[in-house]
Amino acid sequence: MNDGDISTSKQARILTLGMGGILAASIFLGAYLNYHAFKSVLFDLTRTRLQIVATDLQARSTNIFPHTPEFQNLIDQIKKSDPQIRSIEIFDISEYGATDQHPSSHAQTTPGTDNTMVVEVPLTPNSDQIAAIALNYSLATERLQLARKRNHLLIISLSGFALLTALSGFGIRWILRPARDLSRRMTHDFSSLLEDKRTIEQNTPPRWQEETDYLGFRENVRAILNVLEEAEDYGLTDPTSSGERA
Amino acid sequence: MSNPHPRLADGLQHRILLLMAFLVIFSFAGISGLTWSDDETSLRSHVAVKIDTATILLRQKILIHERQGHPDEALRELFRQTLIQVPEFAYLAVMNESQKLLIEAGVRPPGLADLTPRTNNQIAGNQDIRFIKIDTDTKGRKLFVLVGVERDTLRLRPLDHLPVLLTGLFGMIGVGYMILNSLLESCFYAPFRSILGLMGRINAGDFRVQLTPASGTLFGTLTEALNSFVTRVNGHFTVMSLLASDLEADSNPDNQQSRKRLGAHMAQLLNRFHFADGGQIPALIIGSATHTRLPLFLLAFAETLTYAFLPNYVAGFHSLETGYDIEVFMALPITAFFGASTLASALSEYWISRSTLKSVLMMGGGLCFAGYAGTALSTTYESLIIFRVVSGWGIGTVIASCQAHVTRFSAEENFSENQNAFFQPLLSGGVIGVSFGGLLANNIGFSEIFTIAAITALLTTVLTAITVDNFPNSRPSSSSNKVLEALPSLFTNFRFVLFASLAVLPSRIFLGGFLFFLIPVYLFEFDLGFMGIGWVLAAVLLVIFIMTPPMARLADKFGLTVLSIFAGLVITGAITISVIQWQNTLTVIAIAIAVGIGHALILAPSLAALPKLCASELSATTPVSILTVYRSVEGIGITLGPLAAAVLAKQVGYAQTIFYLGCASLVLAVLFGTTFAILRLRPDAAESGPLS
Q1: Closest to A208 (Cβ–Cβ): which among B6, B86, B158?
Q2: How far is B76 from chain A (nearest CA, A)?
Q3: Per-residue confidence (pLDDT) for residue B300, from 0 to 100
Q4: pLDDT (tens digit, 9 = 90+) per residue, A150-171?
Q5: How many CB atoms lie within 10 A of CB A83?
Q6: What confidence tier does B395 reach under pLDDT thresholds 50, 70, 90?
Q7: Any idea which of A54-63, B627-636, B652-661 has the lowest mean pLDDT?
Q8: What would the pLDDT profile of B646-679 be if each residue is shown by its tens digit?
Q9: In CATH terms, are B43-155 and B291-471 the same topology?
Q10: How far is A195 from chain B (nearest CA, A)?
Q11: Which of B26, B31, B241, B530 would you mutate first to test chain A, the one with the most A CBs within 10 A?
C-alpha cells in the first residue's frame, strides 16, 4: 500500500520532477539574463570610454593632421594614458589600396581578445583625402571578469538548484498531505465497509466536497452490500450451489 | 444545491502553483541579489576609469578652449555635448577663484554653494563633485572645472535590466503554471476524477466499468478496493445468471416456484443495475477538454517566439536573392506558414477522426520540431519557406485536432465556456512566447531562438506522450469528410456568406497584416528594439485574451452580436487612421491596443453566433465540420493579411498602409452595420443548434 507514503508516490515524483525542470529552466534563465546584463554593461562602459577617446582624437584632427609629428605625439600620449589601447593605426581610405590593408582587416588581429574602433579624419588640410584611425583595444580584462562571473553564477545556480529542489520536494509533500489523508480515510473506511459492512466513525465533519460525495456513495454501497448479503444467504452467489440446487 | 465544502483539487492546484511562483521568483531574486554587489565591485573600476578618461579629455578641451579664447557659449555647448556623450556625468561647471559659477550645465546638486575647491573630491547632495584646477587662461584667470557624478549611477545600473528580468520572470511563471497544471491534470485530477466518476456510476447502479490500476499512486489502494468491489458484484451477478440459466434448463416441476422467484429477482436486478458482459471489465476513461492545454500552449509559445523579429530575420536573406521586393520577400514566409496551417486544419479532419488524439498531437509536435530545426539551419530563402510550411502544417494539424477534441466535450456541456479551454492556452502561450521571443532576440541570435522553438516542440511531443491519455479522437472512423459535405450548404447560407465576407474574413486580413507584418516591421523603424516589439505584440494578444470571454458572454446574453462586431470594426478603424497624423511609437502602440480591443469585440460574438447562424446546416453535418469551415475562413484571412499589407506597403509605405487598413475597417463597419442591422439580418436570430 502506498496511500500512507507520499514520498514514494507517483504523483509526488512526477510533480517534483516537473517542478525540478521548471526550477532548472528558471535558474538557467535568471543566470543567463544576469550574465548578459553584466556583460552588456561591462562592454558598454569600455566601448563608450574608447568612443570618447576616439571622438576626441577625431575632434583634434581638424587642427593636427595625421601626417604631422604633432599627431604622432598625440597618439603616443593617448596610448600611454590608457593601457587597454594596444595600438592606434592610420589608414588612407580615400581610395582603398592606398594603404596596405583596410582597417576592417585589422579588427581581427587578435581574435577573441581585441576589438577595433574606427573614426575618420581628414588626411591633409584642404583636401578630400580621408584617413581612418583604427583604435585597437584589448578586451582581455573584460573577458577575464566575464569568466569569473560565469564561474560565480555556476556555483550560485547549482547550489540554488539543489536548495530550491529540496524545498520544492518538501513543499509538494506538504501540499499533497490533505490528498493522502483523504485517500487514506476513504480507503480505510471503504475496506471496513467491504469486510464487515461497518464504517469508521468520523470524529470530524467532512472537510472537502469530494469527501461529502464519498459519504453519499458509502450509503449506496452499504445498500448494495445488504442485497448481496441477502443473495448470499439464499446461496445465490455461491458457484458450487448452482449444481446442487439444480 | 451548492456544496459548502471546498474542492480538494482546487486547493491543491492553488498551493502547488503558489509554491512554483514563489520558488521561481526566489530563484530570480536570489541570483540577482547574490551577484549584485559583486557586479557593482567589478564595474566600479571600469566606471572610474571612464570618468577619469572623460574628465582628463574634458580638461584638455577646456584648456584649448580658454587658450584660443572662444566665447563662453561655445564652452556651454561643449558641456551639453559632453553630458550627452558621458551619461555618468550629471553636472558640469566652470568656477573662478572667488567661487563664482561662470558656466554650468546639467543638474546642480543642492549644497554646491557650500563647497570650496580645497580638496579634489567632495560630496554635494547625491553627487560626487570633482574640482579640477586649470591654471591659466588668456585673461590670466585661475579656473576650476566641476564635474558631478551621480552617486547612485553604478548602484542603480543593474536596474536598467529590470524590464528584461521581469519579462523573463513572468514568462517563466507562465510556462511553469501551464506545465504544472498539465502534470496535475494527468497525475492527480484525471485519476481522482475517475474515482469519483466510478463512485457516481456505482451510485447509479452501473457496474460495467472499473478503474485503471493505479499502483504506486496516492489512490492506489482505494482504486484496488473499488475495483475489487466492482469485480465482486459482477462475479455474484455472473453466478446468479448461471444459476438462473441452470434453473431455466431444469424442467423439474418442484423447482417451478424457485424459477419464478429467481426470474423475478433477476428482472428486478437488471432493471436497477447494469453489469459487465463477462470477461474483462473495461477501464473507465473520462475525457476532458483540458487534455489539449499543454500541447496547445507549448506550441503557441514555440511558434510566437519568432514573431517579434521574423520579418527582419527574413530580410537578412534578401541580399542573396533577386526578383522580390523586400516587403513581399519578408511577408512570404509568414503567408506560407499560415497558408500551410489553414490547409492542414481543413484537410486533416478525415485523418484525425481515424487516429487517437495522442498520436495526432505527437505527429504535429514532430512536424513543428522538424520545421523549427530546419528553419534554424536554413541558409537559403527557399529552404526557409519550406520549413515554415512544415511548421505550419504541424501547428495546423494540432489546432484542428485540439479543436475537434474540445468541441467533442463542449457539445455535452457549455460550448462557449469549453472553447476557452482551446483559446486560453493558445493566447496565453502567444502572450508569453512573443514577449519572451523579443527578449531573447535582443540577447541571442535569431537562429538560436528557432532552436529553442524546436526544443520546445520536442518537449511538447515528449510531454504529450506522458500526459495525454490514449483515447480515440473526435468521431468514429465511419465518417466521411464532413467538411466537404458542409461546404455547399454553408456557402448557400446567405447570412453565413455575408457574415464571413463582411466580418470574419476582412477582420482576419487586418489582424494578420497588422499583427504579424506591420507591427514588427514598422516598429523596428522606430528603433524600439525586439523586446519592445515583443511587448507590443503581447499587449495586443493580452487584450484579446482578457476581453474575449466577457465580451462573448455579454454579446450572448444581450444579443449584441451585430453591435459588438460593428463597434469592433469602428474602434479598430477610428484609432488606426490616426497614424496619418502622428507617426511615432506611442501612436503605433495605441493602434495596437485598439486593434486588440476591436478584435476582442469581433472575435467573441462571431464564435458565439456561429451555432445560431448555421443551425439548419448542423442537422446535416457536425459541429466540428462547421467550425473547421469557419476556422478556414479565418485562416485564409490571416494568410492573406501579411501579403496584402506587404504589397500595399511597397506602393505607399508602412504608415499609409496602416491608414488605408483603418479606412477599410471603417467602410466595412458601415457595410456590416447596414447589412445586418438595417436589412434586419441578425446573425444570432436562429434557434440554438447542437453547438450551443
Answers
A1: B6
A2: 17
A3: 92
A4: 999 999 999 999 999 999 999 9
A5: 11
A6: very high
A7: A54-63
A8: 999 888 888 888 888 888 888 888 888 887 776 6
A9: no
A10: 11
A11: B31
Contact call for A210 and B219, based on CB within 8 A: no
Asked if the Cβ–Cβ distance from B23 to A8 is below 8 Å, we say no
Q: CB distance A52–B236 less than 8 Å?
A: no
Report yes or no: B121 and B11 within 8 Å, Cβ to Cβ.
no
CB-side neighbour CA atoms (13 Å) of B161: 25
Chain centre to alpha carbon of residue A40: 18
Say which CATH architecture domain B43-155 belongs to. Answer: 2-Layer Sandwich (3.30)
Contacts of B21 in chain A (CB under 8 A): none
Q: In this complex, do B23 and A168 lie within 8 Å of one another by their Cβ atoms?
A: yes
B92 vs B65, residue with greater confidence: B92
Count of C-beta atoms within a 10 Å radius of residue B48: 13
Interface test with B, best of A6, A9, A13, A22 (most B CBs within 10 A): A22
For residue B283, what is the DSSP state? B
Q: Do A30 and B176 touch (CB under 8 A)?
A: no
CATH of domain B489-684: 1.20.1250.20
What's the ipTM?
0.78
What gap in Å lies between CA B105 and CA B111, rounded to an integer?
A: 16
Phi, psi of A130 (to 5 degrees): -120, 140
Residue among B8, B172, B236 minimizing CB distance to A29: B172
Across the interface, whether the CB atoms of B8 and A210 are under 8 A apart is answered yes
Q: Where are the domains of chain B?
A: 43-155, 164-275, 291-471, 489-684
**Which residues in A lie closer than 8 A to residue B50 (C-beta atoms)?**
45, 48-49, 52
* Alpha-carbon separation of residue B379 from B315, B316, B376 (angstroms): 13, 10, 9
Sort out which chain B residues have CB atoms less than 8 A from A56's CB and list them.
57, 60-61
Instruction: Yes or no: say if B103 and B93 are a contact pair by the CB < 8 Å rule.
Output: yes
Per CB-CB distance under 8 Å, the chain B contacts of A22 are 20, 24, 172, 175-176, 179-180
Digit-coded pLDDT (tens) for A183-225: 888 888 888 887 776 665 555 677 777 778 888 888 888 878 7
Q: Just give the CATH number of B291-471.
A: 1.20.1250.20
Nearest to B46 among A25, A46, A167 (CB): A46
Whole-model pTM: value is 0.76
Answer whether A182 sits within 8 Å of B8, measured CB to CB: yes
Three-class DSSP category at B128: strand
A contacts of B156 (beta carbons < 8 Å): none
Residues in contact with B435: Cβ distance below 8 Å, sequence separation at least 6, in sequence order: B167, B170, B171, B531, B534, B535, B537, B538
Confidence of residue A99 (pLDDT cuts 50, 70, 90): very low
User: What's the mean pLDDT in A35-42?
Assistant: 85
Lowest mean pLDDT among A56-60, A89-93, B87-91, B682-686: B682-686
Burial zone of B220 (CB within 10 Å; 0-12 exposed, 13-18 middle, 19+ buried): buried
C-beta separation of B375 from B387 below 8 A: yes
Q: Which residues of chain A does B169 touch, with a Cβ-Cβ cutoff of 8 Å?
A: 30
Cα-flanking dihedrals φ and ψ of residue B123, to 5°? -120, 130
Three-state SS across chain A? CCCCCCCCCHHHHHHHHHHHHHHHHHHHHHHHHHHHHHHHHHHHHHHHHHHHHHHHHHHHCCCCCCCCHHHHHHHHHHHHHCCCEEEEEEEECCCCCCCCCCHHHHCCCCCCCEEEEEEEEECCCCCCCEEEEEEEEECHHHHHHHHHHHHHHHHHHHHHHHHHHHHHHHHHHHHHHHHHHHHHHHHHHHHHHHHHCCCCCCCCCCCCHHHHHHHHHHHHHHHHHHHHHHHHHCCCCCCCHHHHHC
